[in-house]
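Deliverable D4.2, example record:
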Amino acid sequence: MAEEQNHHLPPESSPEQNHHPPPESPPPPPQKNHNHFPPPEMIPDRNIKECNMHPQTSEPYRALCTCLTILLLILGATALALWLVYRPHKPQFTVAAVAICSLNATSPPSQISTTMQFTIVTRNPNRRVSIRYDRLQAFVAYRNQAITQQVMLPPLAHGRHSSVAVSPVLGGVAVPVSAEVLNELVIDEAYGVVKLRVVVVGRLRWKVTGLGIRTGHYGIYVKCDVLVGLKKGFVGQVPLLGSPDCKVDI
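Output generated by the structure prediction step:
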């Protein structure tokens, strides 16, 4: 019976038959290349034509910039030439004559009362530019102190390359001064030489004849130092000693 039972048992398998190879892992998926560019033959012809049109579209802008640059250069050269030809020069002033109508010094209080007439000649050195003065005022000073009040002068038109003379009468009202100035005036009158300064302030503007161009207003400050031969109590026109020096600031 035992033989029959062993006959029905399944045969034992060998270790080599039970060994199976492990299954192969699937290949990794291909990685995407984000920097991939298609070959040149795959670029459509339309893109190539559009790229070739960009240099052509920039040519009008380049021509416009060139024209504007040339125009600005021409305008700049024209303005420079006009400035060199028509550039205005400062007017020139000089004192031609001085007349003393009265000159009194009183103390106390320290005051000077005087009436003087100055003949002032102004010259326009410009051949193509005229000058227009307005808001002119004049006064007389002695040793850096005013001895007359400011007097308004009428507007003055100055033609091209011409001279104009004005003769304002200054003073008439007593003006307070320091005691030192009063003493110096007494000493100078006794010596016979007095240094006076006539001052003219206002504003001017230039006009280019033929072009109708007018400049803005500029302030003008003129001071003329004159030496006069003057004795105490003398009245009338006094002699000018030396050439009066006038300085013009604009």
